[in-house]
Amino acid sequence: MATITSLPNRFLNAVKRSFRQFLALPLATVLGFVGLNALIYLADRSWSAGQAPAGFRWLGDLLGDSAALGSLLTTVASSIITVTSITFSLLLIAVQQGAAALTAQVTDQFMARRTNQFYFGYFVGLSVFVLMTLVTNTGFHRPVFGTSLALVLTTSALCLIIVMIYNTIDQMRPAKIIQFIHGRVLEARATDLRRLAATRRTARGDWPVVAVIRSRECGYVVDLDLERIQAALDRHAGGAVEIEFEIAVGTYRALHDPLFRLRGRPGAPLEAAAREAVVGEALKALSYDDGRDLRNDATYGLHQLATIAWTSVSTSKSNPSPGLSVIQALRDIIAHWGDGATATGEDARSGIVYGDAAPIAATDALEAVILVASESMQSQTLAEALTSVAILLRHVDPATAARLADVASRALSSLGEHVLTRQLEAALADLTEALRARGFAAVAGAVSDAASGLAESLGRLNSRSTRVPGTVS
């Protein structure tokens, strides 16, 4: 029953998402053309009864009577609709080919670009403008100004097709796609920081768990109304209860999956009615949707980058170029989040405990690229990833450095699949030095030993499964 009653909210969220991701600008552009047509219609009333506005008689003589205007507008309308249909079909085919080469993330970033949204809105709006102008062409109303403007806008549209085709081809380049997602991830982090600043990171250990609240529907949790939850805690619990979330925004929850824990102050029992009120408000504060939104979910962008890297680096595509671009993007993202200057604040008075998932997701994405590089034996990709870890280790905060050191330690398990190229050898030496400089002597020693072990295989003829001495097929 809870799932059924949530359908109106789910539908509303889907509509909002469609407008945020694509529909808002195209529809606004079309409405702008409709409004422009209304203004031009008022201006064209000056041509009624055969009267010509002062200084514009030449324009009326050039375009002709109502029959000539009708013929011209019919030709323009059919031409612009035909050109628009063919152009959009070709562009969508190009996007489909790009998505096949990488992942479906190509379609997402294509739709999210403002320029593409404007192109769609401009061509559709122009078609509507020309058709509305054609309809107003009657025996007593000559749309001279409307026809003139339609010709100017159509000429601009034909020139715009060249720009649109170039932009589409340019946007299908893997580097451009990754750059766009990289920028959106950094923008979405601002939303994360506001959410984190209004909550706490650590639960009160001496407050026992009084209830584990589970999901009553399925879907992605795309937003949290923290103000509503805090108001419910203040009103019904008086500071004697805190909510510890087990999920972050962007997490998928199936029916009965855990959402949050309810913790109570020792010696301050909460009445059943008050607890139900708090739980009810907290559940209503969660917004579910069938898809994730990159605007306020930085981890979704990280997931997209990791997916692109995995698809291109693996033997599915065996294309190292997108993987290298993803590694560079992840290095910049981790550098932004791990320099200590953007450390997340928290509200010590808040009754909501919410974890920061994005930094961990960033290092996990880098770890995934290292793993898939062993499957495809792309030594250049592995070397770039290890070099990125070494660079980051020299300046990130201690918490991020510890995660990176753990990534380096786990990466050794896949090292035996590679040949020790000069580039990989230099990356391992640099990583060893960076680990020692940050105080991870044990991991540095393990990396050094692994590099030495891999070096023993040089000059020998080995199969993939017996490259490193001591392994078996």
3D structure, described in words:
The protein is flat. The chain has a 4-stranded mixed sheet with strand order 1-5-3-7. Strands 4-2-6 form a 3-stranded antiparallel sheet. It has 473 residues and is an alpha+beta fold. It contains 17 helices and 7 strands. Residues 1-5 have low confidence and may be disordered.
Percent of residues in β-strands? 5-15%
Strands, total number: 7
Give the low-confidence spans. 1-5
Structural class: alpha+beta
Largest sheet: 4 strands, mixed
Strand order of the largest sheet: 1-5-3-7
Query: What's the helical proportion of residues?
Result: 55-70%
Shape: flat
How large, in whole angstroms, is the Cα Rg? 30 Å
Task: Offer a quick outline of the entry.
By secondary structure, the chain is of the alpha+beta class. Helix content is 64%, strand content 7%.
Blueprint of the fold:
Elements: H1 2-5, H2 7-44, H3 57-63, H4 66-101, H5 105-112, H6 114-135, H7 144-171, H8 174-197, E1 209-214, E2 219-224, H9 226-236, E3 241-245, E4 252-253, E5 258-264, H10 272-284, E6 286-289, H11 298-313, H12 320-337, E7 352-353, H13 358-376, H14 379-393, H15 398-411, H16 422-437, H17 441-455
Parallel strand pairs: 3-7
Antiparallel strand pairs: 1-5, 2-4, 2-6, 3-5
